[in-house]
Amino acid sequence: MSEPKMPPLDRQAERVILRKLPIGMAMFMVTLLLGIGIVTATGNTLDQRHIKPTTTDFLININTDNAGNLMLLPGVGKVIANRIIEHRQQHGLFTSIQQLDDISGISHRTIARIEPFLLPLPDDLKTEKKRHHANTAP
Fold first, then answer.
1. What is the model's pTM?
2. Residues 81/75, Cβ–Cβ less than 8 Å
3. 3-state class percentages of the chain: helix first, strand second, coil last, to nearest 5
4. What would the 3-class secondary structure string for 24-77 be?
5. What is the spatial distance between Cα 75 and Cα 103, in angstroms, rounded to a whole number?
């Protein structure tokens, strides 16, 4: 016995199928690409500049730590880490975190971002004590 033959499609049905085939293939490809992660969203990338740490697991001493440790600071790469080390070799130890502003490539915003990760420096402690006494004075 031979297999039953499918009735031939009429011309109109063929045209509908052929017209919808590219749309169906396109939808399949988009679904596939999204599913495997090739298509990525633009504009929704993680921006480190807006990350505020709630706690820090480490503290960096800008007067003694090496470039590798300095590069753990957010926004500090190899170039900036080396500039920090060069500055301290040329000008001596930092007495205030705000002195980082003297280094090319470090802005006030960068200082605000990295400050939670830095050990306090002697002048920073004095300034904090003065602020505390001024706020508690009768």
1. 0.53
2. no
3. 55, 0, 40
4. HHHHHHHHHHHHHCCCCCCCCCCCHHHCCCCCCCCCECCCCCCHHHHCCCCCCC
5. 14
How many other CB atoms are there within 10 angstroms of residue 103's CB atom? Answer: 17
Q: pLDDT tens digits for 7-23?
A: 565 666 666 666 665 66
DSSP SS3 for 118 = strand
Domain boundaries along the sequence of the chain: 55-122
According to DSSP, the residues that pair with 118 across neighbouring strands are 60
Low-confidence winner among 21-30, 60-69, 71-80, 114-123 (lowest mean pLDDT): 21-30
The neighbouring-strand residues paired with 60 are 118
* CA pair distance 40, 49, nearest whole angstrom: 21
Distance between CA atoms of residues 70 and 84, nearest Å: 8
> Yes or no: is domain 55-122 CATH 3.30.70.20?
no
Contact between 33 and 39 under an 8 Å Cβ cutoff? The reply is yes
Q: How many helices (H) and strands (E) does the chain have?
A: 5, 0
Query: Residue 84 pLDDT > 50, yes or no?
Result: yes
